[in-house]
Amino acid sequence: MPTTFHTIAIEGLNIFYREAGSKDKPTIVLLHGYPASSHMYRDLINQLSDQFHLVAPDFPGFGNSDTPSIDQFEYSFDRLADITENFLKALGLTRFSFYLQDYGAPVGFRVATRHPDWIQALILQNANAYEEGLTSAWQALRDLWRDRTEATETAAREFFKRDTTIFFYTSGTRDRQNINPDNWNLDQSFLDRPNNAAAQLELIYDYRKNLESYPEWHAYFRTHQPPTLVVWGKNDPFFGPEGAKAFARDLNIIETHLLDTGHFALDEEGEAIAHQIRRFLPAHIA
C-alpha cells in the first residue's frame, strides 16, 4: 500500500510523519535514530504495508519536523518522549509494536515505561539499553558528560560533520557500494540547518541520562515482558553486539539475530529484517 506523508501540530511544533497500511492491521510505530529521520524506514514501510499499519514520525530537530532553537525548546530525551507520547495520543495509537533504533530507543523506552499497556511487542535494531553495548567510540561523549567545557564540546561537534555522517552509514557494512549516498546527503542537509548543531549538542549531552535510566527500563522488561525481536547490525561501531545479547537477561520471549552489517542495518539487511518481522509479530501479538 502507498506511503502517505503528513504533518501534525504537537505542543506547537510541526511534527512530520509517514504512514502506510490499513488501520485495521496491527500497528508498528517506528522511531528513528541519529543522524537519521523517518526516511531510514522508507523501504521497510513499503515491504510491510500489506500486512501492518506503519507510522514513523520525525523527532523535533530531525528530518521534516520543526527545529526550534534551544531557547524555544528543551532538547532532551524526556522532551522527545513527551512529544512522541502526545503524537501517539493525537493519532489515537494506544496499542502497537515499537520498532526502535539508536535515539529511538531511549525515546521509546520512556514511552513504554509510562504506558506499558500500549506495547504489544518490541523490535530492536541497534537500540541500546545496557552499558556493555556502548563501545569505545563513545569516549568523546563520556568526556563531555564528565566535564562540559569548550574543549569537550568541540570534540563532540565532530559528530555533526559530513565525514562522521558518512561513517555512521558505511562503517561495518559488508560493502560500501550497497549503501545509497542519498542517506548521508539528506541527513547532512538537515544537520546543517540553522539551530541544529546547538540542538544536537544538547541531545548528546543529555544522553548521559539515558544510562541513568537503564535500571528503570530493565525493570520494565522484567515486569511486563514484551515479546522482543532483536535484529542488530553486529559491526556497529557505536552499539556493539554485547548490547544486543544483554536483553535476554531480562526478557523471556526474545529472539536475537546478529546481522553482518553496521549501524543502519536496514540498508543491507532490510529484506531479512522484514522477513523476521512478518514471522515474529503474528506469532506473539493478539
Can you characterise this structure?
With 286 residues, the protein is an alpha/beta fold. The chain has a single domain (4-284), classed as Alpha/Beta hydrolase fold, catalytic domain (Rossmann fold, 3-Layer(aba) Sandwich). The protein has eleven helices and eight strands. It has helices at 42-48, 77-90, 104-114, 139-146, 150-156, 162-170, 182-191, 196-206, 208-224, 241-246, 266-284, and strands at residues 4-10, 13-20, 27-31, 53-57, 96-100, 119-124, 228-233, 254-259. It has an eight-stranded mixed sheet with strand order 1-2-4-3-5-6-7-8, with helices on both faces. A hairpin with a 2-residue loop joins strand 1 (4-10) and strand 2 (13-20). The protein is globular, with a radius of gyration of 17 Å. It starts with a strand and ends with a helix.
Please summarize what this structure is.
With 286 residues, this protein is of the alpha/beta class.
List the helices and strands and how they pair.
Blueprint: E1 4-10, E2 13-20, E3 27-31, H1 42-48, E4 53-57, H2 77-90, E5 96-100, H3 104-114, E6 119-124, H4 139-146, H5 150-156, H6 162-170, H7 182-191, H8 196-206, H9 208-224, E7 228-233, H10 241-246, E8 254-259, H11 266-284
Parallel strand pairs: 3-4, 3-5, 5-6, 6-7, 7-8
Antiparallel strand pairs: 1-2, 2-4
